[in-house]
Design goal:
The complex is a heterotrimer of chains A (1043), B (330) and C (159). With 330 residues, chain B is mostly beta strands. Chain B contains no helices and 28 strands. Chain B is globular and about 50 Å long. The chains are: A mainly alpha (1043), B mainly beta (330), C alpha+beta (159).
Amino acid sequence: MRGFSSFYMGTMAADSGLLLSLVEEFVSGLQDSKAKDTATAVKDGQFTVLQLVEALGVSLTSSQPHTRARGVQMLSEVLLESYGNLSEKEVEVLIAFYENRLKDHYVVTSPVLQGLRALTKCKTLPPGSAVSMLKSLFQDVHVQSLMLVERSCVYNMLINLMETREAELKGLGADFVFGFVQSMDGERDPRNLLLAFQIAKNIIHRGYDLGKFTEELFEVTSCYFPIDFTPPPSDAHGITKEELIEALRAVLTGTPKFAEFLLPLIIEKLDSDVQSAKLDSLQTLTACVSRYEHKDLAEFLEGLWASLRREVFQTSSEKIESAGLAALSALTSCLSRSVLNSDSEDSLSTFLEIVLKDCKHHLCEPDLKLVWPSAKLLQAACSASSRASHIITSAVMPSLIEQYDNRTQCSHRRTLLEVVQRFIQSVKNSQSSENEESVFLAFRQSLCSMVFSALSETNSSLQITATSVLTSLAQQTGLLLDADIELAVDHLIRLLLTEEDDRVSCAVVECAGALAELHPAAFITKLIPRLKRELFSEPIEEGDENRRTSELHSHHAVRQRCLSALAAISMQPSVVQESTPVLLEVLSSAHTGTVRFSVEEMVLACRSLQRIAEQVRDTEETGQCFHDIIIPRLLSLALQAALQDQGSSGCLSPIVEEVVLSAMVPVISTSCSRLQPMLAGQTASRAVSLFLDGDVSFLPDNSFPSNIQLLKKQQGDSWTQSQMVCLLMGCVSSLPRSVEVPQIDRLLSQLEEMSCSCNHPLSYMSAAKCFASLVNKRPLGDCLDSLIQRMMNRVCSELDSASSPIRIQAFTLMIWVAKALLLRYHPLSTALTDKLLSLLDDADLGVMAADGFSLLMCDSVDVLNRGCHADIRIMYRQRFFRENSAKLVQGFNAAPQEKKPNYLKALSNIVNKLPKQVQVTELPALLSLLLEALSCPDQGVQLSTLSCLEPVLIDPPAALIQQLEALVSRLLALVGSSVMNVRIASLRCIHALSRFPVHEILPFRARVLKALARPLDDKKRLVRSEAVQARGEWFLLGSPGGR
Amino acid sequence: MKEALSLLKRISAHPDSRCWFVSWSPSGTLLASCGGDKAIRIWGREGDSWICKSVLQDGHQRTVRKVAWSPCGNYLASASFDATTCIWKKKEDDFESLTVLEGHENEVKCVAWAPSGNLLATCSRDKSVWVWEVDEEDEYECVTVVNSHTQDVKHVVWHPTQELLASASYDNTICIYKEEDDDWECRATLQGHTSTVWSLSFDATGNRLASCSDDRTVKIWKEFPNESGQSDLSWMCVCTLTGYHGRTVYDVAWCRLTGALATACGDDAVRVFKEDTSGDPDQPVFSLAAQVNKAHSQDVNCVAWNPKEPGLLASCSDNGEIAIWRFQEQ
Amino acid sequence: MSGGTRLENANPVIFQRSGERLLTAADEDEDVHDPIDDREIFDLIRSINDPEHPLSLEELNVVEQVRVKVNDAESTVSVQFTPTIPHCSMATLIGLSVKVKLLRSLPDRFKIDVHITPGTHASEEAVNKQLADKERVAAALENSSLLEVVNQCLSTRSI
């Protein structure tokens, strides 16, 4: 104190009137704001801190502790604001003063600590002051007797000093650790604990000397393990249990020095009955062993294993089981890191021996419960390292193989096979490099014969499991020989052609796909030719009617499987080169009639082509294939069919069927959307010149007439040519935006003409969609605006004339163009949507207009989606909703009673498609309308409203809870609907209500249970099943053991 | 035959719950019902309709299994799964809880007032039957605990005129008790039923006792003079009604005015049997006089004849309903 | 389940779960009346949790579809269940869970009988008699600790 006074005596400033009055008002006038004013003045350079100290002189030396405290408080508060401006000399003096004050009356301690904390933030802290500050602190203050805020102050000081004065603190040696341990011993506040854990973590991770206080540091932190903390209901600090768990875990698992204390603690806590304690223990174990070496673990291995085994064997919770498995994996991988030397024992193999001893024999009991936990434990160990996988597989595989050979029951064999499968997969994770030899090499022969024998069984589950084992084996580098693959392909062919169980054939197709990607050759030489032969054979025409029908039926099923297999295997370009000609031949044979295929089979062939276009890898090589061969072939076939002289044969080619033609569209559009820009441009210009000018030069089988005019109105409303426009749509609608479509204006005008004049739905609809998707990609500008304006005038004049014969066509064009513009935020879209809104009152088009809102909000499958490179702005739905919901509500209120359902339907169509968060924020405003929609007699409205409510109910907004009475009544009323889907949807909503806060819904329990008794006897099973689930949950509400 | 039993009224007495039992007041003007909703309701006729006069709530924490009127009609006793028996006293048009009899270890299944009104019997799943004495100050004192059954005691019933008590049990037997030297003792064990005996009813004279059981039969037992001259009573089964009931028979009621025997059955039916009076009294013959198959949509738990109006029958069911029937002989 | 407790039957035989019932065209046809059949009843009870193991009654083969009989027209259901071991102390509890599940899930017109598969349990008759006694069942369900266990058996598993 003396040194301090002499210091300020010498630097007394002349201009101190203002300062003195500030001090006076703060210290004795108790005006807290004056500290802030002073701080501002200090920061502005009006006074220095030392001038403040001088001014405070009397208060600081007062005989009244409270006056001294007030004086120190003012100084500290100023320092907290202005610590950045202090010089080293000033800091030195201040520290000396504060250290001295630590011994003062307890009321002074709090402001002293505040001041010290401010000083710990100074960059200008003189050397040695950190140490002296801490020495005084640890010596003179008993931290746990302080108030919460003061303790927090101490922790913050430590944290600040650790950031800037690490070397100095380390110089304190173990005294620092000891001081900290004493400071935090007994801390109970979660906020302070987070700080204390951070300090402990820093001590460990930054290499402070723990000296002889390792155990003390462990004790003082581990006493909080496992964390058991539930934040109070109105917790303002937002500290979660998870934060505390993570912070503590970082401390406990930070150093191997803790191993001897932590591992026994974990073993003890795993014995707890509290699930969260078990889980925390397991996760902590997983975390700590990643830092340990085998010698840290050695003496605890048996105990740890016993606990892990018990948790996995007996658990009733999947979370705990998987945490236990992860811990075993981590443990094993820690042991695997130990370096083998000749004189010490191999701790990995010693450990795995115990694991094997306890688990292996359970693998021989494939019908008992413990087979799975045992397998999972072994697999967890297996996946830890390459060495572990060698030890375990060599111990386990022979007996699994032997078991499989000796067991005759299919269910046992299947279990064994699944266990094997999981071993193969667990090893996949541990293999360090692709080229490493498979650990299963020694068992290749046995594994293959196991799989092939299972594939030959009649039990479908066994077959399915076998296909996935086969896939896994094929994925092991270098495991299967060419001969094995060939044999596998034979099996797959046999199953494809003979196996009728859908689940089996799906698995077989999937397996073929996976194998063909890795080993294409065998599929090209064996499978494709065999499938082709099968596809083009015709069913036997003999026998009685019944026999023929069933023959036909199974023949169709075989073809179906062949077609989907051809798609599945076509990943590699070499396979695509062979498989696509087969699929095209199906279509052309069907067209010429050389081999009969049903329409359904033709559609499947198209689907397979589409799937190939979607999944194929190398776009360059296969792009060429699609561009040169597949697209021209499809166009040519369709054109031949369209031009076919109906008179001669009397019947049309099946290719003109709408379903077939529509199935061709996505083949073309998918491949176009993925083409290289150059090829895409070529395709576009070929297609445009074909459709505008009848240019057929690029088509194969070029024997077409020269005067083809596909977009012009045909004689006698013939639609076979006009509907070809859907293929044009396929060609030009999905191109990247950079690709220019030639003759665009002429093309657009002809499309507009067709969509407004044609009577054939597929034709005018496709023309409208094609028009809309081109408009969507056109660059902004006057040209586009006048195009839209022209179209709008035409459409509106048709719509405004009630007698117009083409109102539906006009509406179709309008809605698609509205969508195209809405997606890209084009300013003219508003005019179109306003028109759409006005049509909700229309006598003929009202319902269609309401449904139109769904079209606007949904992703369209064939055009105007991202896959088609359409111009789509993010959040266009929200924007649309914002701009139109008020108009809809207004329209609803103004509409005549019989038109109101249209508005509700339109609204629920929009809300239905909004993202969840938006629904939640918008719902309060719309809730009354949606509730009204629930009572609307239109079943479509009910259904759509229910489906938009259901997801919102999962996490209900407060507004909904306030309307619970109305909601429950309306939902319960809908349970009696005559429409099955309404009953189902309302029951699902009632089910979702059961997860609302219990106290809110408990009052409804009896009523809901009573109302749900009736649908238990519904005539439809699907309704009963929903009622059972919903009622079951409501029964559990407020009931012991329930919720 | 169907017309013999005609429905007068259905009352939704304990909605969303089950109605376990109904009991007529001695004057026949009031009907008390109790159920799974822990409540007792008092019903009175007003013209053609039945009005709920009062609801006795908050007396019990669990299901009220049975209710019984005192012979004077001024008290009501209720037995509950909450292990207590509640005594209610009539006060003007309402009832107030007078006292709670505690002592049974678990569910009290039945309570019955002796004809004198001075004694009360209760029985429980704890296998015991308790007899309580009532004094003028409305004080109740347990005078005896009898443990003659080896399983739950389902029902107790007093002889119409004497101080003689009968109990029915899950152990398939019926016990008859008499007081001797201030202590109640089991004086006869009636064996014959092959499953739980659910209920008992004396005829008007008290010479015969009807019992009904989970074995789907009703038995008629008759007291015979004891030949050995010892104190034990001799009761024999003189008639067994088999083949009528499709499931457990939960209750039997013998009308003291007409001699008709009504049953409540788990097959949802109410049946009435009449005795062929011309036969040998030691070998009585009963024939089915009326049957309503879907008397209720669920199990029928109880039947009760009105003590004053011949042929007026009340029944109640798991669906919470009471039905009032008129039985008329053809 | 606490770490230290020993299970009566720690390593029971496990059976495969049957798949979900396949949807038929008739199921989705508004006009067709789907009668309540054995499979539907089986689907109600097969996923009930065993009180001891983290397994369903189906996986332990305690319930099987062949031991379920329903007559929709006559409104009767009869289920037999097979305890995993003849002295299983959980038999009554399992039976009670099955009964309660059916009581909550079936229209109240049904008469529900739950029995032990003949010859598979030491106290077969006693358990059957208890399960058939609706008064005891009703009282059991007013006992909160018993109800808690039953509700846990009927909850969809979480944690």
